[in-house]
Please model this.
Amino acid sequence: MRSPESPVLTIDGLIKDVGPLASLDGKMLRVVSGLSMFAERGQITALLGANGAGKTTTLECAQGLQKRTGGRIELLGEDPDTAGANLRSRVGVMLQDGGLPPSARPIPLLRHIAGMYRKPLPLDSLVERLGIDTFSRTGVRRLSGGQKQRLSLAAALIGNPEVLFLDEPSAGLDPQSRQIVFELIAELRDSGMGIILTTHLMDDAQRLADYVYIIDGGHNVAEGTVADLLSHSHEAMDGVTERTLFFDAPAGLDISAAIGDDLAITESRAGSYAISGTLTPQHLAKLTAWWAEKGIMPASLRLEARSLEDVFLDISGREIR
Amino acid sequence: MTSAIHERTSPHAGPAPLMRRILLQGRYETLTMIRNGEQLILAVIMPLLALVGLTVTPLLDGLGAGRVDIATPGVLALCAMSTAFTGQGIATGFDRRYGVLRFLSTTPLGRTGLIAGKIIAVLAVLVLQVLVIGAVAALLGWHPRPEGWLSGLALLILGAAAFTALGLLVAGTVRPEATLAITNLLWILLGALGGIVVPAERLPELAQNVVHFLPSGALGQSLRDAFLQGNVSVPYVLVLLLWTIVPGAAAVRWFKWN
Model:
């Protein structure tokens, strides 16, 4: 846990009920239950969690799009529920579903949004930087997922915000768009912008985030830098690191005959094995000796330390997509 | 790598002034409406067809005034219903579906600016419709009472307000596909039987008693009164006011932004 220095966003004990829902016999559903977090200027703060964990609802409460049921939110020192155009001009929002009119064309749309600000960013450099010039004559309806995301990001940035909210920024991004978007986000962070993003992808959090909140069941269950979270748990407790050994070999091998059954052995696809747990040099020696005896040469072999995904699964005990 | 696009200014320069934001949104929505082919058919082509149709057929004969003089005020009322109710309702319904309302309400425009922009767009398109219909009607021999213009335009605006409130209420509470169906169906039903282009006395007996209480009938009849006789009938004004306030309050209460 850290303490705030100059937070752009502070959320304290956020509660949000939705409903009443017919599927719950007309009762309210609590989608956020006591979530607390803060985000610093010049940092990327990630909310990591499975679909339905309450990430988007939390962001929407912070953006003033949804009224909270309880708790306190302070965005740039103001309450988003009562704030006006002045606060909105300092905050950029990229929604999960884009929010761009399908009939619009990229450049006139961005120019229109830019008109809402006293001193917007120069349109040309933003358009060039995000590669929007390559599809500037195509209507929003016909853009690919990656192009739409880049345009949504431009729309969120055109007002030169101090705080940027990105809801699932890598959804639908092709590898090239992903590169462009991630580089720009990192650069904006370095220039002092406070960036808050949600993601259900470990890889996003691992690549981008300075600080991660793991969200499950409507509240934060763990937090820390990516490095903190990776070293958390078993290693800290007994000095050993969990690892996973992946290899491809002929299907149907009885691996436990070679190395015993103190490790988790899975054959996810025929011939595709994973051995996880507290792997020791002795395990590896036994396994390779057994391969030599049987005349087995694996087609591939890979050893990995804990991933953020393992940490997440440890903590939440839930499947993540 | 291109140069940095982001330049930190402290303090932040803030939003553009409120009036500028609203006018920008009004212009944007107006252009979106008049560039949309389906909207243009509904807003201009259909009313023109109604005007010509009622002028060349004997449907309105024997009501004490020339065909075009009776037809034109009703067609102007139809224009208000096309733009403010059906066109505006459908556009808002789909904007809601695509998250456009949510995104724009996070910009300095906000929800108030968004609604103000829509009202400006409805009024701007209505002005274009009055010019087009008025010009064609004049060619067909329309002679409105000059003193009818002032009250006629005021009634048109009041009628547009009532239909905007109704359109927003539908668009904000049901799915956009349902909004499309409801507003188009009501446009046809009210257009044919709602006392808007065809005066009440030419409608089936059952409809005659009802249409005076509908926004369509109240607007159509009051515009005919204004342009044919030059007078304003207070009961119709009250009916239109009621149809503005009640659906307007309901829209404020039940409009769902997402």
About this structure: Chain B touches chain A through 39 residues (CB under 8 Å).
